[in-house]
Design a protein that fits this description.
The chain has eleven helices and twelve strands. The protein has about 300 residues and is an alpha/beta fold.
C-alpha cells in the first residue's frame, strides 16, 4: 500500500522508486502483484506515466487511511508518545460556527494535534465524511428541503442531530444607509450589492432549481465569494454592500464595524444539522466543540 500511494503521488514508477530507495523493477513488480491480488487495475500506464483508474482512486483513499492508522499505532506503542489529539469537521460558512471553533481551540493541550476545519458547501461536507475521513460535518438547508436531506442521511448511513433553526438576517457596514433604517424590506435592497455564494446543494434536486429557490431576486448586482475573510473585507470597505447570513456574534459585528438587522419580508427558515457516520463514537474533543457550538449559537440570536 505504501508503494502504491507513493506511485500515485509521483505519477511515475521511476520517481517513486527514487523516493522509496527501491529498484524500479522491484517496485513495478510489487505494484503488479498487488493489482493481481486485488483483482483490479490500480494504475493506467502510458508513456506519460502512471495515472489512477477509478478503482485505483478508491483503493488509494483506503490505503492512505490505513497507513495513517498504522502510523498512529506506531506512535503510541513504539515511541511511547501519548495519542495525538484528532479533530475534523466540515461546515458551512457561518460566523457563529467559526466563533465556536476558535473557542474550542483553547482546549487543545500540549500533546501533538491534527485538527481540520473545512468551510465548504453541503456536497463537500457529506463527501468529506463518506470519502475523506472527516468525522463531523454540519449541513445547512432551508426547512422545506428537510425530507430530501433526511432521506439522504438514512441512505448513506449518517446520523443527524439538530443544531440550530433560524431566519437569515442582513449584515452591512454601520455607515450604510441600510443600517439607519428602522425597518428593512426586500425592495430596500434593490440599489445595493449583494455578497452571495454560488454553490448550493440539495440531494436529488438539480442545482438550477436550488439556485432559483435560494437566491432572492432583489438585486441584479452580486459578488460571489467562497470564503469568509473576503466577505468581511468587502463589508468593511463598501457601504453599498449587504449579505444574508445566519445570526452573528456581537463580538464579530463590533470587530468589523457591522450591523445585523432583520428583513421583515424574509420568512424562510433554515436549519443547521450535525452529521456523522452511524458507527462513529464521539471523542472528548468532539463533545467540547459541540458545547461551544451551542453556546455560540445562543449568543448569536437576534435580540
Amino acid at each position: 500500500m505504501k508503494y502504491a500511494v507513493e506511485v500515485a503521488k509521483e505519477g511515475s514508477i521511476n520517481k517513486a522508486s527514487e523516493k522509496l530507495l527501491i529498484a524500479q523493477p522491484n517496485l513495478s513488480r510489487s505494484i503488479k502483484e498487488l493489482e493481481s491480488d486485488l483483482g483490479i487495475s490500480i494504475f493506467a500506464r502510458s508513456a506519460k506515466g502512471m495515472t489512477l483508474t477509478p478503482e485505483g482512486e478508491e483503493f488509494i483513499n483506503y490505503a492512505k487511511k490505513i497507513l495513517h492508522q498504522i502510523y498512529e499505532i506506531e506512535m503510541i506503542y513504539k515511541t511511547g508518545k501519548p495519542a495525538k489529539q484528532l479533530f475534523s469537521i466540515s461546515v458551512p460558512r457561518a460566523s457563529y460556527i467559526a466563533d465556536a471553533f476558535a473557542k474550542f481551540s483553547n482546549y487543545l493541550d500540549d500533546r501533538s494535534a491534527s485538527v481540520f476545519y473545512n468551510e465548504t458547501n453541503n456536497d463537500m461536507v457529506i463527501r468529506n465524511i463518506l470519502e475523506n475521513d472527516y468525522k463531523l460535518g454540519i449541513v445547512r438547508y432551508a426547512s422545506n428541503f428537510d425530507k430530501h436531506f433526511k432521506l439522504m442521511f438514512e441512505e448513506k448511513g449518517l446520523r443527524h442531530e439538530f443544531v440550530s433553526e433560524f431566519k437569515y438576517v442582513l449584515i452591512m457596514n454601520k455607515d450604510s444607509e441600510l443600517a439607519k433604517k428602522d425597518e428593512i424590506k426586500l425592495n430596500d435592497l434593490a440599489d445595493y450589492v449583494e455578497i452571495a455564494h454560488a454553490d448550493p446543494y440539495v440531494p436529488t434536486l438539480p442545482v438550477a432549481t436550488v439556485m432559483k429557490e435560494e437566491m432572492v431576486d432583489v438585486s441584479d448586482k452580486r459578488i460571489f465569494v467562497f470564503e469568509r475573510g473576503s466577505q468581511f473585507d468587502l463589508l468593511c470597505n463598501n457601504n453599498k454592500i449587504f449579505m444574508w447570513v445566519s445570526p452573528i456574534p456581537d463580538s464579530l459585528l463590533e470587530r468589523y464595524n457591522l450591523v445585523q438587522k432583520e428583513c421583515v419580508d424574509n420568512t424562510k427558515v433554515y436549519k443547521d444539522v450535525l452529521i456523522y457516520k452511524n458507527d462513529y463514537n464521539m471523542t472528548k474533543l468532539d463533545k467540547i466543540f459541540i458545547s461551544e457550538l451551542i453556546e455560540s449559537r445562543r449568543k448569536s440570536e437576534v435580540k
